[in-house]
Amino acid sequence: MASLNGVSIGGLSVGGGAPVRVESMLKTPLEDLEGCLRELEGLVAEGCELVRTSYRDAGLEGCLRELVSGSSIPIMADIHFDHRLALSAMDAGCQAIRVNPGNLGGRDNLLTVLRRAMDLGVVIRVGANGGSLNNHQLAQSGGDRVAALVAAVREQVDLCLEMGFDRVVVSAKSSSVPETVRANQILASMYQLPFHVGITEAGPLEEGAIKSAVGIGIMLSAGIGDTVRVSLSSEGVHEVRAAYRILGALGLRHRGIEWISCPTCGRCRLDVKVYVDRVRAVMDRFKGIPDGFTVAVMGCEVNGPREAASAKLGVAGSTSGFVVFVEGRPIGNWPLDKLEEVLSKVAKDLVPGAEER
């Protein structure tokens, strides 16, 4: 979103004015190739654009090669401890490699990886995590984890740039939102390279999504971030959906319908939770609804007409049932038992390309 310079990973543009990209990581071990491909198919169906896989054994190079060749989106190999695995991953066709400054084994190992990447046109993500900072990095920073994260990234990014290698994506993550935000603010003031942002080890579905929304939202709002991952202890499809919700809330990218609904109070003319589900069920029957199409479900006449009127399609409770608004214009009042019938007709009329599944 904000970086002036961009890279291309298997034809996917990252940074340099490209949309903020959504990515995830395979949770299926690479040796289960069929399982990886099934998981990958589900991620792609949700809009995932780049996926990372853990590559921990060169004996799996054949599996990695088949995964790369069978994927419709770029595969990034996630490398720890052994730089030779990065070389093997590039031989298998990976067009992006994530290396961890905390455990790659020193300058010479990184130089070896960079030379191969330079020859093959591979992108390198320098990805430091708070949990994998080594003792030397922490000691050098006096125990300041933000300073250690920044120093770990700088050590390898600066070496890349000294070599004339600029196909670099920068990443600094912690499970702490304040640590992650501060480290990225400092690094963004130093480099005009693409940034991958997220909160690592954010937690289970609900807690992790909230923590990620706060951290990623702060960074993207500050213009930091060209790819995102919402790291959850849950299925990868939830990560992708959450990422798009964050981007949609910031007005950066939309996927699917954007929903507005009131939190309800004693003035409600209808049960908003029930009617959100009913309206959603109607809208889910249609294909061809454009991304970012806004639907509002409001409980009463206090905020309902104003909020519903700002949506492409709005429903608000009334004394005699519900009112439908289309692009700010009220088109009628019906009893509640007519909801599905009325909305189906309105949706067809409002979106010419919409068809029932």
From TrEMBL:
GO terms for molecular function: 4 iron, 4 sulfur cluster binding; 4-hydroxy-3-methylbut-2-en-1-yl diphosphate synthase activity (ferredoxin); 4-hydroxy-3-methylbut-2-enyl-diphosphate synthase activity (flavodoxin); metal ion binding. The lineage of its organism: Bacteria, Thermotogati, Synergistota, Synergistia, Synergistales. Its EC number is 1.17.7.3. Keywords: 4Fe-4S, Iron, Iron-sulfur, Isoprene biosynthesis, Metal-binding, Oxidoreductase. One of its GO terms (biological process) is isopentenyl diphosphate biosynthetic process, methylerythritol 4-phosphate pathway. It comes from Thermanaerovibrio acidaminovorans (strain ATCC 49978 / DSM 6589 / Su883). Pfam families: GcpE, GcpE_C. It is an enzyme of class 1 (oxidoreductase). Binds 1 [4Fe-4S] cluster. Its cofactor is [4Fe-4S] cluster. Gene3D superfamilies: Dihydropteroate synthase-like, Sulfite Reductase Hemoprotein, domain 1. Residues 7-243 form the IspG TIM-barrel domain. [4Fe-4S] cluster binds at C262, C265, C300, E307. Converts 2C-methyl-D-erythritol 2,4-cyclodiphosphate (ME-2,4cPP) into 1-hydroxy-2-methyl-2-(E)-butenyl 4-diphosphate. It comes from the Bacteria. Residues 258-347 form the IspG C-terminal domain. Belongs to the IspG family. Pathway: Isoprenoid biosynthesis; isopentenyl diphosphate biosynthesis via DXP pathway; isopentenyl diphosphate from 1-deoxy-D-xylulose 5-phosphate: step 5/6. It catalyses: (2E)-4-hydroxy-3-methylbut-2-enyl diphosphate + oxidized [flavodoxin] + H2O + 2 H(+) = 2-C-methyl-D-erythritol 2,4-cyclic diphosphate + reduced [flavodoxin]. This is 4-hydroxy-3-methylbut-2-en-1-yl diphosphate synthase (flavodoxin). The keyword Metal-binding applies.
